[in-house]
Amino acid sequence: MRVNAEGRVAAYEECRRELEGFARRLVVRPEIAEEVTQEAALRLLGARELPDEHAEVRAWLFAVVSHLAIDHLRRHSTWREQMMVDIRKRAEGNETFVYEAQSLRGSPELQTVAREHLAMCLSCTLRNLPPEHAAALLLKEVYAFSVSEVATMLDASPVQVKNWLQQARRRLEELYAASCALVAQQGVCHQCVELDGFFNGEARDPLDGTRRDVRARLSVLREARGAAVGPWHRRLLELCDDLLS
Description:
Helix content is 71%, strand content 0%.
């Protein structure tokens, strides 16, 4: 059934922040996520036939963003497994970045910096997975689509999607067990707790009181799925661009 132009705009605006967050979790870089989301909006306006229900239009938009993001990731395969560690080293050696970070201390915008960093870390870690696996995990566990819906959106079978989900969780657990002190009690990454201490004066663990597994991290992502990137992390991602260029 056809949806008029006004209805299409309303459907897009209803889930725009979610779409941008989803794209950002896949491609990491905010400007690329914005481009992908805008392209999906253009395709929505130009589509000849669309489902009538807003929920189905939402699924259509997520499918378009999924394919655009996956195509981008296939073309840009320069990601590093220890990207968060590499970014930290670059940040600590950049006097301008350090000065800007110090000026943000006590800012209300950074009260939840540790949880935002945990969400960003998960996005970076997802880049080490095949893009279809990462997209399936986000669609199912963060954006609440069913396995059958995810299969339709990614042009896969439900069995394939279930396999992708299992493999994604297993790989993430392996990566975090090897690198994250919040999970393994040892390792190279203490950034979440350190950042909270630096900006807010309290070294709070963003996973405190929760299970220390991938499901706990996905739960944090669900809470922040419509949130914009904070000023400090947006600046940090500029350093990420420098590393990948």
